[in-house]
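Please, structure for the following, as tokens.
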Amino acid sequence: MYSEWASLSAEINANSCGAQCFSVLNKFPASAGREVVISVVKQLGTNLGITQNAEPSHLVKDDEVKWCMDVICFGLSLPLQEHETIKDCVNVYCEWLTALHPQPRISVPKPICEDANLYARQIINHFHNLFVPRQGEILPFLYQTKLGTDTIKRQAVLCHRVLRTLQQTAQISQQMDRQTWDTLLLFLLAINEILLAPPTVKDDVGDQLCERVLSVLFEVWLLACVRCFPSPSLWKTLQESCAMWRHRVALVDQWNRVNLAMTAKLLEFSYGPDFTQLKNVEDESQLIPTGMSNDCVAQTWYRFLRMIGNPTALCSPHLISKSPHFVQWALTHEKGAETHQHPCLQMLPQIFLNAMRGISSQVDAFLGLSRTALISLTRSSANAAAAAPTTPTSGPPSSSSINSLPSIGNEIRPPPLSMARPKCNSILHLFGEWLFEAAHIGGDTWLQNRKKQACEASKRPSSMIMENRKGSISLSQPNSLNDPSSLPPTLTIDKYESGRAEAIGTLCKIFCAKKTGEEILPVYLARFYMALQQCLKITESKECDETLASILLHSADLFRLDLDGINVLLPGFIAALEIVLPDKDLKLKTQALTFNRTDLRRSAINILLSIMVLPLHYQALPIRNLASGDTGEKVLTFMQLKARLMNILMNALQVELDAQNTHMLLGGLLLCVQDAVTFEETFDLGSGSEHLSGAAGAQHHEENLLSSACSERSASLTSGTASFGAQTHTATASAHDFPSLTISDDISVEFAHDFEAVASYDNAHALFVRATYLVCHRLISSWKTDLNVSLAALELLSGLARLHIRDTDSLVRIVEPSQNLTIISTDALECKRAVKWICDYICYQCSRPPPAHSKDLHSTIVAAFQCTAAWLMQHPYLLQEKDCLQTVLEVVELGISGTKSQSKNGDLPKFKDEKELKPASMRVRDAAENLLTIVLEQVGYFPSECGPESISSLLDEMALMKHCNSLPTGDGSAGVCNAEQAISKFKYFVTENSTILALLEEPLGNDQDPQPTVTLLIRGPFGRHAWTMQLRHLPRSKSGIKYHAANPGRPIPMNDITQRPECEQKNFPEGVDKVQPCVADYSIPTLDLIREQYGAGIISELEAMLENQNIHEKLAWAESDNSVDSLSHSHECVPPTVCHEFHAARLFLSHFGFLSFEIRKPNDPVESLAPPQRPLIVLDTKSAAFATDLDKLDKLSARTHDTVYCFYVKAGQSSAQQIIGNMAEDQSYDAHFANMLQTLGWPVQVAEHSGWTGFAHNSWSLKGADRQHQANNNVTSESNYNGAQRVLYWADVSSEIAFVVPNAWNLRYNNDMDACSLSSNCSEQNTASNVWIRSDETGSMKSSKPRNLSLELDTGNRGKEPVPPTRRKGTVSKPTLLVQAPAKVFLVWLESFEDYLNFPVEDLLVYARTGEEVQPMQLPRAADCHVIFVHSLQSGLLRVKLLGPPGRMSFATPLVDGMVLSRRVVGNLVRQTALNISRRRRLDNDNYQPPHVRRRLKVQDIVQKYKMDLSEAELLAHLFQRSV
């Protein structure tokens, strides 16, 4: 840089050597000169105003001043024992230097004030004597041991005074000319050379003043750059001098300090104030002078950056110790030593580390990573070095390594890279050369170069070489200097590993800062890959060193950036992950490593998540060996790495202890299983799969699927005998159409066999078994106490339940070492075991002691119930197993009642009416009820004939009346009625205070059977169901047969009249008089006794009645005998006429036990006080509002509903209008975005859809019902799913989700809905469908007890049941939680990944309205939105970025921030993640009510409004009345 300019080093040396020749007193004996100095200086010092008031100087002529200056010059060179005299000399000169100040002191002589610059230069030159060695002394400040410590400290104080005065003068003075500036800078260079160039000795003046003299030099130099920019010669001299001071720790620290301050100023004007500014510890204004122009900042910054040369020279002690001072030390050493053996050089590893840290800090500044500068380590590093000068330094790679790790959830996220950051090439142009060389230090390439240099040096003879810098002699012995064995143990190359780790970590940060579409020069990529390959080499001991840790900590994004050829490093990174992740106790190369192991594992997991899908994506594509170009080597393919990746994932999950890391691993596990399942469904392996499940599976069935035993097999395949044939083809594909390779004829047969052997361990079925077993086991043993991990594990198990594994005939053998048990498992057994484990998990959580019961605990129980429902729905055959069914029902009972009827197998079961109702919480009871309903109603029957869009019947009163003949129109045909007319034909009853029964007694039009028929609409907590019932005494096969024969074939009756014998009736048997009576016989009085007691009149009346009755009976018999209908006459039996009038409702209610009224015990005080409970409540349907409330009930879905809004962001877009405009018909977008939309759900027509549409007003409507359409009829695009006409929809038994792609129509629609919501009617309608508001908040249950205080409202048989538990009232005191909006989930497709930083969430919320936002607090906020960004890579894979509100339960699985996934699974995983996000938000909301609870409360609201208080007689009479 300054090769054409002359150095001023000779002038500096001359000034230092000739400083003592300036005074005339040097001509006289030292004692005489000392006496003169003492006399003169003492007199001059009295006038300075230090001990007394200052007086004007008596020196009025130039000669007088010059004579005194000669005396003072000599005084500054006196021995150190003359401290007071030297101090007076320093005080006089410091006062006289104020002549350069705007206001000089009064004691400054007049000649000095008149020509201040001339005298100031002389004073500055005389100050050399304070720092240079005295005559007859050899470097007394540094090596003379006779001087006491106090003397050295007093001398240091004087030096501080001089430095402070000079710095203050330079800052204040406005009249310094260029010569004075040059003199000042040369003086500072000279004293730094004197103090810093010699080898360091502890506690000498150089050691004490080192940091001070350097800071003054650099600060004054920066000041000179503003006032009088130094000449190139001065810059060259500064660079040469700094090269001689590199063994000083303070040099690099001060260099870093200046560089960071200058970099901050440079970034401020280069990238504007919006660029992330670097925050330094000390005030920047103290270091950077005011008034420095932008050009001056740039010039000064670059010169200072290059001031110490290449920092990698610090790794060569031979080079650092080439100065004459080290040679002099070596020559005068008592035992003889080499120059590089000086003890002070043991600090070189620390100095090298500090230099790399400084460069790393500057790189961070250019990348926009705002963090506190690291250069506050000046004193701390020096103190640490002084405390342990012989201890090798192996600290953390960077203080930012721990603080800048990616994290999710409740941990602090690192600041993102600045959007305006420079390109990677620009940063590498500045620092790349140094960083690449530093990264290779100690590697194979570096060792080869050192051997080569040593070989070349050995050819030259040893000689004495004249150093061209100062003409001094330095000893050159190439053979010894280049021999690593001659270095002391503390300077071996491995001691520089910390600096090397910092360098490679910085390189990783630079390359991870690549923007979308940015090109990096191939030469930089090649050097980076070579450096990484050298640093990733694993030793035989398989230990983790600092370099490996630094790479993993800073390479989280390396495989997500479309770096050309990055996959050549895949084997190396996998080997590194095998060192860090599978073992619980990380093997460290040295225990001095202080980085956070959890953060290291997290970064390693991030890398793992970015490469998990590569084997199935590239399949048989070979991975080239970067180190060797020999094409004859064995080929390693991507597919061969799959087994190793799976084992890393499984083993890492088995030993991971950190909750956040476990969360990430669980997401990656579901990705792997899902990808394998989808891959096998999409790409059939043909005969390979048959062989896979046959011979290969049988051969290796002894392996433990949960261990890494098969990794040995897969590892051997990586170096096996597989190779490509001679006709291997290289396919060239576009950015997004990368071909999926499969086994073909181009691959050798040997490779095909190896491929099948590897896949046998990691096919979809094997992964399913391993994942299920491992997650269930860990959930029970380790994760049950952690909320987030438990939820993530249950989400993974739910995802596994939904997978359709390809049928396989092979049996999987799982060895459980802990139980010495081998189980032959099929899919059914695995699913049964999973359900059993989940149920055990619920039992354990419910059985925990009361202090452990909390909101989080109950959230895990609710999630476990939901997970159980998912398994049973996807595997209905599990309920055919008696044990499984019993386990599930016992858990349901536990959730509803709080205990099991049979705690142990041998115990007697406890019946329901004997148990006390104490569920763990209301939420747990609600979840258990939901599971019970799913088991009884949905398992094996979903989806029903109505389709998955509805779990309720699509029939209501109006639909049924269309098929009834009782509503004629004008032409006599059946007509369509309105809702009020239809409802009037039904009778409405409520049972159990939660179910509305609507009974229609008229048969439907297609039913002609004269049977008692009732059509029943059941509206309960879990939906609406329609049934038609008939009372039949015969089965349908026989009930229609009628016999019409003329002669039934009966015998002819006989007309003989039988004689009726006369007999006397006896009241007692014969012989009763013979029995001897006893006392009891006389207890009944005889007739005679009664006549005597009551009189004969009563007896006479009784006898008359008997006589009359006898006469009537004889007349009746006579009349019967004479009648034609008597048995004596012939008469044919005729069937009665068919009855067409039935009270079908009465029959139904009676037969089903609804009319069995309560039998009360009047003597029971409990029942006498309690109001009577009736099993049936009659509703009054005459009110006009009844139809409206019934419709509101039908509008409450029995499932949860969510909405995801999909956006497409083109490169560079940051406004809502631009993003919304992408969905216009004339706009084009990536075809893969449309393909992803199709995988999210199935398209439905809103007009014909009976499920959730994304808008509250038109959801859950019956097909064909009249509704107002506000859709744009001109919308014909196939990709238009804005909700106007079409929407993407997906549903299962418990949830619905709609995917809406908003465009301009949504804004107009939402504005119209906002205007409509101002009216009360619209508000009420929306409130009815809003599940995020409690019913007591809407005012609909003012007269009833709120549900949040009790289990039921007006429950039947309350007097017989135990008192139910009450909800905790703690939520009442939380008004902020009473209203909470549902989660807003955005799915955003990014063309440029960096655009996620400027995504306008707030502006897009107006397009994301569902109509449920009825209160201001429910309006969505940007801070509450979850955004799933998807960015398409050139490889055809997709990169995921998650943003969301901070919180304990914000982020759900399976998607994890930074994950890379394939296009074939993106739709499924996005949908699962959106559903899980919404579920977690509902779990975290104290006031959320499940859908069936919401419907139950609405039913109770209807009961309170329309119930008829009828007595038992009135109720029975009501049943005999016909409907209007």
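The longest helix spans residues 1096-1122. Residues 706 and 770 are 6 Å apart (CA to CA).
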